[in-house]
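Field reference: sequence -> structure
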Amino acid sequence: MTSMTGMGVAATPIHAQPRGDDRYPSRFDAQVHITDRLDPVLYGSPDEGPLSASQLHFYLDNGYLNFDELLSAAEIQACLDEVQKLHSDDAVKASDRAVIEPGSGELRSLFEVHRSSAVLHRLANHPKLVGIARQLLGSEVYIHQSRVNYKGGFRGKEFYWHSDFETWHVEDGMPAMRAVSCSIALTANTPYNGPLMLMPGSHQRHVSCVGATPEDHYKQSLRQQDVGVPDDDSLTRLVQDFGITAPTGLAGAVTFFECNVMHGSSSNITPLPRSNVFLVFNSVHNTLVPPFCGLPPRPNFIAERRDFTPVGAL
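Structure field:
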């Protein structure tokens, strides 16, 4: 195992010690540590789903897969109509599942959409999406999290660099790296309107972050995350080792990316909105335990910890 310590990180009070079952401790130390991944990346095989051996090999090496066209134009249009309807509903914007952009007051994200919308429920059970997730994770899968990310024109704010797994492990109690996110583009994701950016290969490293987790951290972090993000030195090292890619595409493009790959997106200062549906598939063998930060769990609409019913039966 390799271990590297970040430079120039301010000392941070230590509020607790890692649990004995915590294989990926983070936010406990006053220094950053980058260590090797302890879990497999790929759990399935070529004969267990729609992906070819070459596609699986690409995912193993890079931590993502991008498809220009996976769903029909009619399916994408139905989803776009639905998310636009939700966006214009004042009751939706006022709900606790809505995240509002700092500054502009615009809707940034809306969570648990597979439960509040019949259209998006069907999307979460789409056999093409579920089939890929099952193959990558080597088991039945359930929805750990679903959301719509609205990045409107001119004022859509960035999502800073982070590993989803770091947060899901620390704040939600996800034990292992056995989950995959699926981003479905409902509008064109161009190089200019704040597309998803990934560091291909970074999923092979675990970056422990500095800064004890505040209580009810999600209320701030979903709007603008400051705790649970790597320091500048760690991000520089990852970019030097792996580079950055942005899998852009027209409406209907779909990107699957591994739960530990470092990713983010810049702000959107163009007139072109960027709306995506995110579905997080987790293995039924990787259900949540008490959060590793020692705090109470985040709300169920952010991290499913009650219903592990496999998806894909529709």
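Note: Residues 1-15 have pLDDT under 50 and may be disordered.
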